[in-house]
Every structure is written in structure tokens, then in C-alpha cells.
Amino acid sequence: MGNTKGNHLGEFEELTLLTVGALFDEAYGVAVMDEIASRTRRNVNISAVHEVLKRLEKKGFVQSRMGGATNERGGRRKRYFTLTFEGKTALDQSIGLRNELYNAIPKLTFNFSQ
Questions:
Q1: Tens digit of each residue's pLDDT (9 = 90 or more) over 22-31
Q2: Quick one: how far is CA 36 from the chain centroid?
Q3: Which residues 6+ apart lie within 8 Å of 17 measured at CB?
Q4: CA distance 90 to 18
Q5: What is the pLDDT of residues 34-62, one digit of tens each?
């Protein structure tokens, strides 16, 4: 998949995709929300996380599977997400572009006097 407009990663999509990869086999909505909130020190809305996870699945960047029902969830099952090859490729492209741009900043730009 090329990085066309439809497959472009927004900032929150990128954070969510990175978090799904980092959580590996334990990436479900609340865990993703808690991890993003913890690492970014931002309030994160569970509805926004679920919406982004659905959008990432539609793009083919994550896939989901249902876990078993648990008593603490009142018999409801968790939907777990995992990174796909296409998702890893999208992250590689996004992070590669960020690194290229960062490395293109002239070194003298970083000579701040404090």
C-alpha cells in the first residue's frame, strides 16, 4: 500500500498504531487508551480510541480478534488488535519521513543560547 491520501496516518492514528504494536498481544481499547494517556500525559477519550482502531482496521493496518468472555466484564468479550504488515509499513514510512525532515534541519538551528 502506498502512502496515498487515504492511507495517510494522522498523529492520533500513528500514536494508536504504535501503541498497538507496543502492547503486542494485549492491545484492546482500554489498554491502548491507558498506554497513550500514560505516555503522552494527555486525556484520551475511549470513544476516540475505538473510532481510530476501527479506521485502522478498515485501512488494513491492524486486525482484530475476539478474546474469551470474562466474569469481570459481565460475560462480554474484549476485541484485541494486532499490527499487520501493512500497518508496520505505514509506520516505517511515517517515521522515516519524520526522521528525514528532522535530519534536514540545519545544525545551526539548534544553537540556542539560554
A1: 999 999 999 9
A2: 9
A3: 9, 56, 61, 62, 83, 87, 90, 91
A4: 10
A5: 999 999 999 999 999 999 999 999 999 99
Quickly tell me which residue has 478498515 as its cell. Answer: 58
**CATH number at 7-103:** 1.10.10.10
Given a contact cutoff of 8 angstroms between Cβ atoms, the answer to whether 62 and 17 are in contact is: yes
What is the C-alpha to C-alpha distance for residues 102 and 5, in angstroms, rounded to an integer? Answer: 22
Q: What angle do CA 69, 71, 76 make, to 5 degrees?
A: 40
Q: What is the pTM of this model?
A: 0.81
Cell numbers describing residue 82: 494486532
DSSP summary character for residue 105: S
Question: Alpha carbon 111 to chain centroid distance?
Answer: 33
Domain ranges within the chain, ordered by starting residue: 7-103
The Cα 7–Cα 99 span in angstroms is: 19
How far is residue 105's CA from residue 39's CA, in Å, rounded to a whole number?
26
